[in-house]
Write a structure and sequence with these properties.
This protein is an alpha/beta fold. Helices cover 30% and strands 23% of the residues. It is globular. It is an enzyme of class 3 (hydrolase).
Length: 491
């Protein structure tokens, strides 16, 4: 009797099992893709984040951290990155509490919104006593130093916060920063871009939820910035609401998106008896605007809120889910999942874009483990968060090959030590344009396989793992689902 080739048998058997498993998974996902069990997971299925503003000193509170880690996939430091916290004395920087938040977020696969580089409030005393060119120089230096410190770790920066006045005028707020010259906001954005080219740069403000004089003043500034090439990527809408939301809330978000910037709901909290319904309305508005990146609530439990006694958050003071939590999660789950709708058309790769690479078998994303920036940093799969460590750019090497560059580290996918063996590790490494860093895309039915130029082997999730932390390796190209990747454009 003829002996069956072991590798052929293994491939056939594994393919059969994967097809069966995929069929079952597809059935399960059809039932669960629109029924995420946490805010962050459901938002991620729709290509968005759901975050919370947090305080470093509360990271020792087990109830607080339990809710944070379970429910949210983005964090904003409440105060720890503001000017008075990070530069208490001129030229002397203090990052301890900000680092606690960044480290926690990175360890738990959360993206980070930096808040806020420049603001008329919460300035250190030494800055409050400055004016004119001296203050301008100090402010720009502050932006440069802090944005450089966290370069590659921040998804979005609130570069400037609350610089427009309330009322019917639609103009700038009078402040020591404004008195340094009307171009101070532009200067801050240009400095932030130079310090961290990959972070989204946002302007953030309150009482801008509907179309009014204040939001229109900001709209005009953004329109001017875009026309002149001033680097601005997003506008934040704080959305501190009470019992209702403006009827033109979604239209207001959309008009900013139409300018070519992303929009983010940055400090959401809602008081009043109609709280649950308003949370759902706001969530639906974000889902309806394709450039709405996500939602951040300003605190976790009611007892964590700055709005004392108003109970404006999604969890009560004991950490129990409120009706507003349920209405928000239901709104997210009723939204259309983003995958596969935004995936890249077969055969099409835009070398100016940033992509998340989602495995067909596991549904997880290629991820730089633990936000490493080191040569040799592990590459794994992880639940999709769209974090910078999960975003990749294809750099053309010619002849149909690409290097695949991490947005977080700037390093590229690399077959370690030019191995040609099955199971060899994929790591990140400084871009040397070596053949072990070059990959050819082979498309099939909307998915691609990535074939290494040096070894001829395919990028795969080792052992068809579906676990967070599953290793990314190379293996003979046999077309299994664990070797197939969907490109989801995120930037």
């Amino acid at each position: 009797m003829k002996r069956t080739n072991v590798r052929t048998f293994r491939a056939a058997l594994t393919a059969t099992l994967l097809v069966a498993a995929t069929a079952l998974t597809t059935i399960a996902m059809a039932n669960s893709a629109s029924a995420g069990t946490t805010l962050g997971a459901s938002a991620a299925e729709r290509g968005r984040y759901f975050g919370a503003a947090i305080a470093a000193f509360k990271l020792s509170d087990s109830t607080y951290v339990g809710i944070l880690n379970r429910e949210f996939n983005s964090v904003t430091p409440e105060n720890e990155m503001k000017w008075d916290a990070t530069e208490p004395s001129q030229g002397s920087f203090s990052y301890g509490n900000a680092d606690r938040i960044v480290n926690h977020a990175q360890a738990n696969g959360m993206r980070i919104r930096g808040h806020a580089l420049l603001w008329h409030a919460q300035q250190p005393g030494w800055a409050q006593n400055m004016s004119g060119s001296a203050l301008r120089s100090a402010a720009i230096n502050h932006v440069t130093q802090v944005a450089t410190k966290y370069r590659g770790k921040i998804h979005s920066w609130d570069v400037v916060n609350e610089a427009f006045a309330d009322g019917s005028g639609g103009g700038r707020r009078d402040s020591n920063l404004q008195r340094t010259g009307n171009d101070w906001i532009e200067a801050a954005f240009r400095a932030a871009r130079a310090a961290d080219p990959n972070a989204k740069l946002c302007y953030n403000d309150y009482n801008t939820d509907g179309i009014n004089a204040k939001s229109t003043g900001i709209y005009n500034m953004v329109q001017d910035f875009k026309s002149r090439g001033v680097p601005i990527d997003c506008v934040g809408f704080q959305s501190h609401l009470s019992n209702s939301v403006p009827s033109d809330y979604q239209a207001n978000l959309q008009r900013f998106a139409n300018l070519g910037v992303d929009v983010q709901i940055t400090e959401l909290d809602i008081s009043g008896s109609n709280q649950a319904a308003v949370y759902a309305t706001v969530t639906n508005a974000c889902l309806a605007v394709s450039r709405c990146n996500g939602i951040t609530v300003w605190g976790i439990r009611d007892s964590d809120s700055w709005r004392t006694g108003q109970n404006p958050l999604l969890f009560d003071s004991s950490g129990n889910k409120k009706a507003a939590y349920t209405s928000t999660l239901n709104a997210l789950n009723n939204g259309t999942p983003s995958s596969p709708a935004p995936s890249t058309p077969s055969g099409s790769i835009d070398t100016s874009a940033w992509y998340v690479l989602v495995n067909r078998n596991s549904g997880k994303a290629v991820d730089v483990y633990n936000f490493s920036t080191a040569d040799g940093g592990r590459i794994t799969q992880w639940t999709r968060t769209n974090g910078n460590n999960q975003q990749w750019q294809f750099v053309d090497s010619g002849s149909g090959y690409y290097r695949i560059k991490s947005r977080h580290s700037g390093k590229v996918l690399d077959v370690y030590n030019f191995s040609t063996a099955n199971g060899a590790s994929i790591v990140q490494w400084a871009d040397g344009n070596g053949t072990n860093q070059q990959w050819r895309a082979v498309w099939s039915g909307g998915y691609l396989r990535l074939i290494n130029r040096n070894s001829g082997k395919a990028l795969e999730v080792q052992g068809a793992s579906t676990a967070d932390g599953g290793n990314i390796v190379q293996y003979d190209d046999w077309g299994g689902n664990n070797q197939q990747w969907q490109l989801v454009r995120v930037g």
